[in-house]
Write a structure and sequence with these properties.
single chain, 732 residues, alpha/beta, Rossmann fold, Dna Ligase, domain 1, 4 domains, seven-stranded mixed sheet, 37% helix, 20% strand, disordered N terminus
Length: 732
């Protein structure tokens, strides 16, 4: 990955971000809640305040440590003061290990004393009832109005490994491995689970651990921004349940990609889909999870779906040599001693878009030389029992895959979590051959076990890691981790043009009136942003409708004009393919009478007369307002099947043309646009242009736009463009 992206855009100006240094790298710390009382039950039951002081001392924290407790003048060899105001020099950060009811007042006193940051371990805030929510609201106010950087509440705290600053509630284990991965987790328990798994089962070192809990002060987006700037951090891995500053997420993601610091996120709570009621179809077509996926995709965030995938993907991305040797390709070579495992790997790779190519003829010849009467010359390569019986065979099979010109990544099925005695295991012998091959290979080599779980043999793991060979557990997770690397590589490669294309500010548009826009105003809005529309005229009587049709040219369509009738065809408010004045008059009368009977409360403002569009494929384009990200753009197959099929793709404005094309290509029915059953291919380029125009409209109108539908947008045969034939725009 040698390419470098352009510098950060204006909306990512550093002045928009708070400096987290007093929290993440404090020069002095006060611990409130430490005690001289011994813990019943040993260190496991030690008061959290004492544990923080012990962690700081054991890890060699270079700054000043004081305690706050009115009962003592000294705690654990640290000077102890009766309250925060009594500390002679203001400290950077206070750590609160006290009952939740005391926290707001203590933080208020800390802000008065010039403290700039705080870690709050206590639970019992926004995650519980009304009383807790009120306590959390006080913390949020302190953070916003007084600039106090609060980690938590309901958290384990922050741990700056290279800064030797573990403001952390959990015991720090012996043999902690410093390294390039920063770990951010809202869950305290998962923060230690992930840290231990990365260090013990992947030999991946950590630069920071952040357990941020309820995010009453500093948010995950702010931690990401700080860690992107950190010189000791190359990869950021995170478990996130909710974003507090989602509209900053894309900015920080672009910054991470520009600095080539992968941001890998496991987003929890995907099943809790919150949908906002809206008059538009678009309002019901995408829930919060789909919008988050779109934001991750556009920001280059590596999205994972399980803890195991997070661990394996982090292992791959943090292996510097592996990433440096990777050329961006998706062709994998697989070596295993099990024919069954070869089948499973092939299936896993095919399911997620990796290729398992045929080996070259040169490789096949080498394989025949390596093993007498060797029948298998396929990829995945089954080494059979021969490679277990003869120790000279495995290295030759491995080198053949390394040298094969059809392969971008070599993967080896290696049992590093085999519970059997050492003398019965093959992993140690094979790992030595892998290390030797990796020393001279310019092609990345990775290993994966057959099963997930159990302790990983450090005699296998650590030398491989040092050789730049990451270990993953299970074929499925391994393939997903490699796919994640390929996707990230492609994102960075394409991001330069995307950033330049989207740099222009959206065109301003006059403030619109509240409610559902009349059809002519809605079509005028679309035209302003470059979206072609059919000719439209309004008519309040049958004669006006006939005259309008004559001006536009037959055939025409009539549609009822009423703010109370949003889905016109459902209630008989549409007449199509009218070819003369008489049929127009008759349709006007029929539509207005029918609506008056079915919806007597609806105010009918006449009809709109439109010229019929040519034949093409009906699509729906829309904008919905997401609770987190604001206006988002949707594209799918339209007409009456839109809500039944729900084949839609989502994008976050502003969209580049390439991103618009990516949306269209993600539709399950994309092949239909290329022409099926004798139908000609349609104008996909014009469809992409319409999506770009719609994203500019969304950016320009912002939060005043409650929702928008273009349903249908007719995509005409290739070279003939697109045309919007119905539009519903709702303004708030």
């Amino acid at each position: 990955m040698e390419f470098v992206l352009e510098s950060i855009r204006a909306d990512e100006d550093e002045s928009l971000w708070r400096d987290l240094s007093p929290l993440m790298a404090p020069k002095s710390v006060a611990v409130i809640g430490a005690s001289q009382r011994a813990a019943a039950g040993g260190l496991a039951r030690e008061p959290r305040g004492n544990r923080v002081i012990r962690n700081l001392k054991n890890f060699g924290y270079p700054g000043r440590i004081v305690a706050v407790n009115p009962k003592y003048i000294e705690v654990m060899d640290c000077r102890c003061y009766p309250d925060i105001a009594a500390i002679p020099q203001a400290v950077d950060c206070v750590v609160l290990a006290v009952p939740n009811r005391h926290v707001p007042d203590l933080l208020d006193s800390a802000a008065d004393a010039g403290v700039r940051a705080a870690v709050v371990f206590s639970a019992g805030f926004g995650e519980i009832g009304e009383e807790g929510k009120q306590r959390q609201a006080r913390l949020e106010t302190l953070s916003q109005e007084r600039g106090l950087l609060i980690c938590g509440p309901n958290c384990y705290g922050v741990f700056n490994v290279f800064g030797k600053a573990p403001l952390f509630a959990s015991t720090i284990p012996q043999g902690f491995i410093p390294g390039p991965v920063a770990l951010v987790s809202q869950s305290g328990g998962l923060s230690t689970t992930l840290a231990n798994a990365l260090m013990l089962n992947r030999h991946v070192g950590l630069s920071h651990i952040v357990s941020c809990g309820n995010q009453a002060g500093a948010t995950v987006e702010e931690y990401f921004n700080y860690l992107i700037e950190d010189e000791n951090t190359r990869v950021i891995a995170a478990f996130v349940e909710g974003f507090k500053q989602p509209r900053k997420l894309l900015a920080v993601a672009r910054k991470a990609a520009a600095r080539n610091k992968p941001l890998i996120i496991l987003k929890g709570g995907r099943s809790e889909v919150s949908q906002r009621a809206a008059a538009t179809h678009s309002g019901s077509l995408a829930g919060a999870a789909e919008v988050i996926d779109a934001a991750f995709r556009q920001g280059g965030i590596v999205s994972v779906r399980s803890l195991n995938e997070l661990i394996d993907t982090t292992s791959i991305f943090s292996s510097e040599r592996f990433v440096e040797n990777y050329n961006g390709g998706r062709r994998i070579g697989v070596l295993s001693g099990s024919g069954g495992e070869c089948t499973l790997v092939s299936d896993a790779a095919a399911n997620i878009g990796l290729e398992v190519p045929e080996l070259t003829e040169t490789t096949k010849s080498l394989l025949q030389e390596a093993v007498a009467d060797f029948a298998n010359m396929n990829n995945p390569l089954d080494g059979t029992g021969a490679m277990y019986d003869d120790e000279n065979i495995f290295p030759r099979l491995l080198q053949a895959l390394v040298d094969d010109g059809h392969i971008d990544i070599v993967t080896v099925n290696l049992e590093a979590n085999d519970p059997r005695p050492k003398e019965l295991k093959s992993g140690n012998r094979f790992s030595q051959a892998i290390e030797k091959a990796a020393a001279t290979s310019k092609k990345p080599i990775a290993t994966f076990s057959s099963v997930v779980g159990g302790p990983v043999d450090p005699e296998i793991l650590e030398p491989l890691r040092k050789a730049g060979v990451p270990l993953m557990e299970g074929a499925e997770c391994a393939m997903r981790a490699l796919r994640n690397l390929a996707d990230y590589h492609e994102f960075r490669k394409s991001s330069q043009a995307t950033a330049e294309e989207k740099s222009a500010s959206p065109r301003p548009y006059p403030r619109l009136p509240f409610g559902i826009l009349p059809a002519q105003d809605a079509f005028g809005l679309l035209e302003f942003f470059g979206i072609p529309v059919v000719s439209v005229l309004a008519a309040r009587s049958a004669e006006e409708a006939a005259a309008a049709a004559a001006r536009i040219g037959f055939p025409v369509a009539l549609k009822v004009e009423s703010a109370q009738v949003t889905h016109k065809s459902d209630v008989g408010g549409v007449a199509l393919h009218l070819t003369d004045a008489g049929s127009v008059r008759e349709a006007f009368t029929r539509i207005t009478n029918q609506i008056a009977q079915r919806l007597p409360a609806a105010k009918i403002d006449g009809v709109v007369v439109q010229r019929m569009a040519g034949d093409g494929i009906e699509m729906i384009l829309g904008i919905k307002r997401d609770a987190l990200f604001g206006p988002v753009v949707l594209c799918g197959f339209g007409g009456i099947m839109v809500e039944l099929l729900k084949d839609v793709a989502i994008g976050i404005p502003p969209l580049s043309r390439e991103q618009a094309r990516g949306m269209v290509q993600r539709l399950r029915g994309f092949a239909i646009l290329g022409g099926v059953r004798g139908k000609p291919p349609v104008d996909v380029d014009a469809l992409c242009d319409a999506l770009v125009g719609l994203s500019r409209l969304a950016s320009s109108l912002g939060d005043q736009l409650a929702g928008l539908d273009i349903n249908p947008l007719i995509v005409l045969p290739k070279g003939n463009g697109v045309v919007a034939v119905d539009a519903l725009v709702q303004i708030e």
